[in-house]
Structures are given as structure tokens and as C-alpha cells.
Design brief:
The complex is a heterodimer of chains A (178) and B (657). With 178 residues, chain A is of the alpha+beta class. Chain A folds into 2 domains: 134 residues, no CATH class; 35 residues. Helices cover 26% and strands 22% of the residues of chain A. Chain A has a two-stranded antiparallel sheet. Chain A is globular and about 60 Å long. Chain B has 3 domains: 197 residues, Aldehyde Ferredoxin Oxidoreductase,  A, domain 1, CATH 3.60.9; 198 residues, Orthogonal Bundle (Aldehyde Ferredoxin Oxidoreductase Protein, subunit A, domain 2), CATH 1.10.569.10; 209 residues, Aldehyde Ferredoxin Oxidoreductase Protein, subunit A, domain 3. With 657 residues, chain B is an alpha+beta fold. Chain B has 25 helices and 20 strands. The radius of gyration of chain B is 23 Å and the shape is globular. Helices cover 40% and strands 13% of the residues of chain B. The chains are: A alpha+beta (178), B alpha+beta (657). Chains A and B meet through α1 and β2 of A and β13, α7 and β14 of B. β2 of chain A pairs antiparallel with β13 of chain B.
Chain lengths: 178, 657
């Protein structure tokens, strides 16, 4: 299969931990924006961005909510950078059983950053007037082929786990549903 | 549903160990707003005037401002109210930081402590779960250290901690309550917390704060945020650096200290050092600050970053803000490095950065003048800096002469006698003031010093420029975009104010103008203190983002209380008057309302009398400073008038008896 080139917008939030003052306006406005009705309440515990703070150790790490995961990692990370020891999983985006962040406080349902779809820029960026959070957009050309390769790698994994026949059966059943 | 506020207070009886979540009356919010306003109402209702600061009957109230926890930028203040052991009047001291929003998110507007715990405890508020827990392992620990230990112990790095250090435990009359980057320092509220045997209050909250009219409220927030940005990019010309830009003020970021070091007095508020700020000093202090300051830091939901993390070699890290940067340095006639070093220990001990250095300078002056002797200071080091560390330790531990000094200069002087009272020369209502000694009487400041019941000038000044601008063109330029004024007459007052000549201090601004100006300044602070707004974005500054025209809209959209300018002014006047009434019941009278004798060289007794007489009438108070029956009635405070009459403070005719 020849790779068809497609354009894709990639949004990146550049996080400069040296510029963060630790005010948590990002957490506050994120929770307000995602409240229903919009802006009807604020509650940082519902925020999809959390500032991992340890003021006495001079640690300020804004982290965004990423994928939900059912199980926690087999091991945990603890980074020391420039002599500063960061808390366990400090840089991880996962909504994971190992921590309370990125979950609705009442229901425990996972939260995930949606870059404030529909707004000019994510609200956390808008409220971060010290530019610790800055959004960047770039266009990238991606080849379909790459996705194809990824698919095949995935299927091979599944086949080695369940056996090729099981996978084939599953695919034929799925295709009949459509 | 309640908006902006939670509608619940947490009532804790420490004697019995009883904890209750009590619904509050929405009517009270309408009349007294929140924070300072409703704190004052609770004190009036429940703490009789005979109550001593260290009586179990005294309440210690941690009140959040009405708009704390909402999106309103810079609204994060905790207002702590109680009886002050030092002034014997109502202490209201405040702190920024993160504690107030966290308490709101936990579901409470206030924590009201009463009684006295038999043993040292801390209080753990985790949403609906509230516990009184043993704190014997924290006895004697530093305030900052305590916060870290509790966050670890509870495995809650996101919990916010308000704690006392050794000074609070030992009931030093100027002990503070520390909260990481912020502290509530004035009036000895930390001593009351220590007397109640509460080492810390730890809070964690994960609940919503609701907004009545979200769309309108956000529009207001964005207007304010845009204005803040513009205001920081366009500093006010012709004023000192900390007044040119917003902040509480920006002492950690701004390096130029010529104004403070040359205009404020050093030592025991004695010596002006003209020409102190040389290039060498400037360079040395810049180096010190750059070495010590790790990062500028903000309070909750505020971009201004008035605080800083300070790390000195070999010492634990602490956080600092505002004028404590200079108070130790100047009282000890030393340098910035010493000031930052001793402030680390003072912050862990938890003492007020205004009073503590002045008490130490006072003690050394008494020694120098033979009123105290070497035997009062056994084993005191020879060197200047060492002596101050020694004194700080003695005071906080209440050892020897430290036990006397721990009560502040007023009470210490009384106890020492032998002429010591002459040296406690910089107090108002028994409390140490900023070390300012000036020449010409300023009528605006005269009234503020006399009648300000925060007893702290920075907590009542602001809005109106501190001095006349030299040229008319400069003044015209200043008033052009001065939309914050409640009335255009203020622009005229300022336009006609000259540094010299007929229209200058002390007879200009005229008595009537002075009353208008002082009343406006005070009102804006009182509104801030009820809403939880930081004065650094509001009342302390000229041309601030928050003012009398947008506050009513914030309250309407945020709290769902129909508010307009008149109603807001009336509410502020109501709790301001109630606060005065509370102090009147505790014996405060006209005789107490005066600046330090030596504050100005040039005094004008007749003018001063006229100023005070006229302002009392303006405020609806009689010649003793007591709110009259009519003014109380107008404010819906008939219950105060009845109380005054029953105590013989007012007669039926409304006169003082």
C-alpha cells in the first residue's frame, strides 16, 4: 500500500516550570470551564491540569490529564533533576488508580484534557499570564502507511497472544456486525 | 442554593471536643457580606466585652472572604478575628495564600474556635470529615516545619496548613499564624491560637463553589484581568516603585529601597539615614537578594507574585513577602543578609515582622540608657547581630527579660518602669507601628492613624496619592483615566493639591476634603476584607482593578445578592460601625485615637482637634467616637444602640454618659 499523505494539526502546550508562580489559576479556570453549565462553579479537584507543587523544594510542575488506565504501572518513577527530587509519577499524565488526580471527586470518573475544544486557546493558557503555559500549533504531514504499520504490529501482538485463528474469527464476526 | 459562599460554618468547641457544621443565615450575608463583616457580627453576638483574650469564651474565627474560591483574580484572603492580647480590642489580621479557597472547597465559610483544648491538638478538615487530633509530637516545632510534617503525616501534599510556631505556643503577644508563603501577623492572634492549644488547622477540600450568574461573572473577571495586564505594563509615573505597579507590594521583586531606607527610621524607630542608599549598598543588597531568592511566588489565583522563596546557605527554606524584608535589617541597623537570615528563624517561631524587630531594638535602647542592665541579659553575645538572635530566642521562649518583652513595648515598658515608657514611643492603641518619623503633619494620615482600627497604616491607606504631584500638568494627566473615584470631586481635590504654598499640608486638603478621602480609603479596605480581596490588587493601590463601581457587580453576579453602589457602601459602613461598637464596648474612646507623639515634628493641635471632631460627625459618631443612636438606627444596628444604653455607654438621648 502506498502511503497517502494527510495533514494533521498538532497542538502542543509548552510548559516552562521555571516561569510558574504556583498560583493555580490554570486549575481554577479549567474546573470552571468544564463545569455544567459552563463557568457555573469552580473546584480545582475537578481540573484537568494540576500543578504538582512543593514550594519549599521549589517544585512546580503543571501536568495535564491524559489517558485513563485501569491498572497502575508495575513500577513507579521518581526523578531527581538538578538536585530537586520530584514526587512519584510527577510527570505522568495518566488518570490512574495510584493517585487521586484527574478523577471527578464524587464519581471517580476519569478526566482528560480536551484542550478546551471550541475556544481560541486552552483556558489554562489564557489565564497563565506569566507564560508558564504557552500553546503552539503546527501542521504535520502524516502518512497513512504509518498507521497501517502500527495496526499490523498490534495485530501481530494479539495473534501471538490469542493465536491467529481466534483473531481471524473475531475479525469475521466483527465485519458481519456492520 | 448559596452562591459564592458555602452557607456553612464549622463550629468547634475545643473544651468539649465537639464539632458542628452550622448553616448560616443568608440575611447576614446581605447585611455584612462575609469575611471581616460576618466575623465581626459573630464576635458582637457571642463575645461579651468583659472577655479576656485568653479566656475560653474568646472566639478565634478564621473567616474566608465572600468571593474566595471563585474565579475573581486575587480573592484568596483569610480574615482572622479575635480579641487581641496586646491591644485588648478586636484583632483582625489577614493572610493571603491558599487556605481560604481550600476551606471553601471543603464546604465551609468559616472555622469558629471556642473554648480551650486540654492538650496540644491540631484540626484536620477533610471535606465533611473533621477531626481534632493529638499534636504533642509537634510541640515546639517551627510553623513551616509543622506544615510539612502534617502534610506528610496525613499523606496530603495538597492540604493547606495554618500553623503557629513556638511564639504562639508561648502566647507571645505578637505571635503570628503562618501559612507557607503568607501569615496573619498583627494583634497576637497566634497567641490566642496557642492559648486554645491549637497547633495547626489543616484543610483539604474537593467540592464546588457555585456562581449565580456565570456569564456575567466571567465577563467581569476578564475585564479585571485585562486591566491588571495593562496596569502592570503602564506604571504610574512620579511615585515610588512599589506604588507604581500593583502588588502587595512587590518588595521581593523590586530592588530599589532608597525610599524605605532613607525615609523610614532605623533602630527603635529613631534614626533617619539620609544618603544611606549608595551604589555600594545597592550592589551588595542586590547580590544578597539574588543569592537568596529562588523564585517569585503567587497566592491562589493571582498572577502578581508578591512573595518569594528564600533559601540561605545552611538554613531551611522559607517564604517571605512584603516589608518584613527590611524590618529586621533596619531595627538592628544591619544589612539585608542579616535581615533575611533572622527572618527565617522568626518565621518558624511565628512572630509579627513589624512588632518583633521593634521590641528587640527597644530592649537594646533600654540597656544603652541604663534602664535595663547587663544582668537582665545574661550571656548575651557582644556582636550586634548575635544580640538580636539572642533576644528573639529569649522572647519566644519567654525566658528572663524575654518574658516581659514578649508582651510588646507598651506592656513591657509599664512592667519595667523607671522611665521605660518614653521608649515605647511608636505605638498606637498599644501596638507597634511602622517606623515613620516625619516633619509636616499630613491631615489625611492624621485621621487614618487616629481612627484606623486595624491599627496598621498600610491596611487603611491607598486609592488617593500619598503626596501632591509637583506640577499641575502631572496632576491633570493623573486624573484623566482615574475612573475608580466614587465621585468626580476627588479629582478636583487632587488637582488643587500643591506640594507647597496655600494649597498644601497641613491645611490642604481641607478638613472636609480630608474626611471624604479618608472615608473612601477606609471603605475600600473594608470591602476587600469582607470579600477576601487582596489589597495589593485593590484598596492599597491607586487606580486598582477592583473599585466601588465593579464590586457591586461582582457581588451580584457571584453571590446572587442584588447589590448596587449605595447598598454596598451602606453594608461596609454597617460592619465598620459594628466593629467600632465592639471596641467601644471594650473601652476604646477618643483618648486612644492618636498617632505616636513624635510621628510628625510639626503638629497643629487646633487643626487636629477640628479634623477629629469633623470626621467623627461625618462617620456618625459622637465627640467620644461612639456611634450615635441615629446613625446606628440608619444602619439597622438598633441592637447595638440598645446594648450601649443598657451598659450606660449612651444615654437615651444618644449622648455619651
Amino acid at each position: 500500500m502506498t502511503g497517502e499523505k494527510k495533514k494533521k494539526i498538532i497542538k502542543t502546550i509548552r510548559i516552562d516550570v521555571d516561569k510558574c508562580h504556583g498560583c493555580r489559576a490554570c486549575e481554577m479556570i479549567c474546573s470552571a470551564f468544564h463545569a455544567k453549565p459552563r463557568y457555573s462553579s469552580s473546584n480545582p479537584a475537578r481540573s484537568r491540569i494540576r500543578v504538582i507543587r512543593d514550594p519549599l523544594a521549589d517544585i512546580y510542575v503543571p501536568v495535564y490529564a491524559g489517558e485513563y488506565t485501569v491498572a497502575e504501572c508495575a513500577g513507579r518513577d521518581k526523578y531527581t533533576i538538578n538536585g530537586k527530587e520530584y514526587s512519584e509519577c510527577a510527570f505522568c499524565r495518566a488518570s490512574c488508580p495510584s493517585r487521586a488526580d484527574f478523577k471527578e471527586p464524587d464519581s471517580g470518573l476519569p478526566l482528560k484534557c480536551d484542550m478546551c475544544e471550541g475556544e481560541d486557546e486552552p483556558l489554562c493558557v489564557k489565564w497563565c499570564t506569566v507564560d508558564a503555559l504557552v500553546v503552539e500549533e503546527r501542521e504535520e504531514e502524516v502518512e497513512e502507511e504509518i498507521e497501517q504499520e502500527e495496526l499490523e504490529v498490534g495485530l501481530e501482538e494479539l495473534a501471538s497472544k490469542y493465536g491467529m485463528n481466534t483473531i481471524m474469527d473475531a475479525i469475521s464476526r466483527l465485519s458481519k456486525k456492520d | 442554593m448559596r452562591y459564592a459562599e458555602t452557607g456553612f460554618n464549622l463550629e468547634i468547641d475545643l473544651t468539649r471536643g465537639n464539632i458542628e457544621k452550622v448553616a448560616t443565615d443568608p440575611k447576614d450575608t446581605e447585611l455584612y457580606l462575609g469575611g471581616l463583616g460576618t466575623n465581626t457580627k459573630i464576635l458582637w453576638d457571642r463575645v461579651p466585652p468583659e472577655t479576656d483574650a485568653f479566656s475560653p469564651e474568646n472566639l478565634l474565627i478564621f473567616g474566608t472572604g465572600l468571593l474566595c474560591g471563585t474565579a475573581a483574580t486575587g480573592c484568596n484572603r483569610t480574615i482572622v478575628s479575635t480579641i487581641s492580647p496586646q491591644t485588648k480590642l478586636m484583632a483582625f489580621s489577614m493572610m493571603g495564600g491558599y487556605w481560604a479557597p481550600e476551606l471553601k472547597y471543603a464546604g465551609y465559610d468559616k472555622v469558629v474556635l471556642r473554648g480551650k483544648s486540654p492538650d496540644l491538638v491540631y484540626i484536620w478538615i477533610n471535606n465533611d470529615k473533621v477531626e481534632i487530633r493529638d499534636a504533642s509530637h509537634l510541640k515546639g516545632k517551627g510553623a513551616i516545619e509543622t506544615a510539612s510534617l502534617l502534610q506528610k503525616e496525613l499523606k496530603e501534599p495538597k492540604a493547606q496548613v495554618a500553623a503557629i510556631g513556638l511564639a504562639g505556643e508561648n502566647r507571645v503577644f505578637y505571635a503570628s499564624i503562618e501559612q507557607g508563603r503568607s501569615s496573619a501577623s498583627r494583634g497576637g492572634i497566634g497567641a490566642v491560637m496557642g492559648d486554645k492549644n491549637v497547633k495547626a488547622i489543616v484543610v483539604r477540600g474537593t467540592q464546588d463553589i457555585n456562581i449565580a450568574d456565570p456569564e456575567k461573572f466571567m465577563d467581569l473577571c476578564y475585564e479585571v484581568n485585562d486591566y491588571i495586564k495593562w496596569r502592570q505594563e503602564n506604571p504610574i509615573k512620579g511615585v515610588i516603585p512599589i506604588l507604581a505597579i500593583l502588588g502587595s507590594p512587590q518588595e521581593m521583586a523590586i530592588h530599589d529601597e532608597q525610599w524605605h531606607t532613607e525615609n523610614f527610621s532605623w533602630g527603635n524607630a529613631r534614626t533617619r539615614r539620609k544618603g544611606f542608599w549608595t551604589d555600594e549598598v545597592s550592589e551588595e543588597w542586590l547580590e544578597t537578594m539574588n543569592k537568596a531568592r529562588t523564585r517569585l511566588i503567587s497566592c491562589y489565583n493571582c498572577p502578581i507574585a508578591c512573595g518569594a522563596t528564600i533559601s540561605l546557605p545552611g538554613l531551611p527554606t522559607y517564604m517571605m513577602k512584603c516589608f518584613t524584608k527590611l524590618t529586621y535589617t533596619m531595627a538592628a541597623m544591619s544589612n539585608l543578609e542579616f535581615g533575611l537570615t533572622i527572618a527565617q528563624r522568626a518565621t518558624e517561631y511565628g512572630v509579627d515582622g513589624y512588632s518583633a524587630p521593634q521590641v528587640m531594638a527597644f530592649a537594646l535602647e533600654l540597656l544603652e540608657n541604663g534602664i535595663l542592665s547587663d544582668t537582665d541579659f545574661p550571656d548575651m553575645p557582644e556582636d550586634n547581630e548575635g544580640r538580636h538572635f539572642y533576644l528573639l530566642d529569649k522572647i519566644v521562649r519567654r525566658e528572663g527579660i524575654g518574658d516581659v518583652l514578649a508582651n510588646g513595648t507598651h506592656w513591657a515598658a509599664k512592667e519595667i518602669g523607671n522611665g521605660a515608657e518614653e521608649y515605647a514611643h511608636n505605638n498606637i492603641k498599644k501596638q507597634e507601628q511602622l517606623p515613620l518619623k516625619l516633619s509636616m503633619l499630613n491631615p489625611i494620615y492624621f485621621l487614618m492613624y487616629c481612627t484606623g482600627e486595624k491599627i496598621n497604616i498600610t491596611q487603611i491607606e491607598g486609592q488617593f496619592p500619598q503626596a501632591a504631584f509637583p506640577k499641575r500638568e502631572q496632576r491633570e494627566k493623573f486624573v484623566k483615566d482615574w475612573f475608580q473615584v466614587p465621585d468626580d470631586k476627588f479629582k478636583q481635590y487632587f488637582l488643587d493639591w500643591e506640594p507647597r504654598g496655600e494649597n498644601s499640608n497641613p491645611y490642604y486638603p481641607t478638613v472636609d476634603m480630608t474626611c471624604d478621602i479618608v472615608d473612601w480609603q477606609e471603605m475600600m479596605h473594608y470591602i476587600d476584607d469582607a470579600l477576601g480581596m487582596c489589597a495589593g490588587l485593590s484598596s492599597f493601590h491607586m487606580k486598582p482593578p477592583y473599585h466601588i463601581h465593579n464590586f457591586p457587580q461582582f457581588i451580584t453576579a457571584g453571590a446572587g445578592i442584588e447589590m448596587n453602589e449605595e447598598k454596598l457602601k451602606q453594608a461596609a459602613k454597617r460592619y465598620r460601625t459594628l466593629l467600632r461598637a465592639f471596641n467601644i464596648n471594650r473601652g476604646m474612646r477618643r483618648k486612644d485615637e492618636k498617632p505616636p507623639e513624635d510621628h510628625w515634628k510639626k503638629r497643629f493641635p487646633e487643626l487636629e482637634k477640628e479634623l477629629l471632631d469633623t470626621y467623627y460627625v461625618y462617620k456618625g459618631w459622637n465627640e467620644e467616637g461612639i456611634p450615635t443612636r441615629e446613625s446606628l438606627h440608619e444602619l439597622g444596628l438598633d441592637y447595638v444602640a440598645e446594648d450601649f444604653i443598657s451598659r450606660g455607654i449612651l444615654t437615651d438621648e444618644g449622648k455619651s454618659s
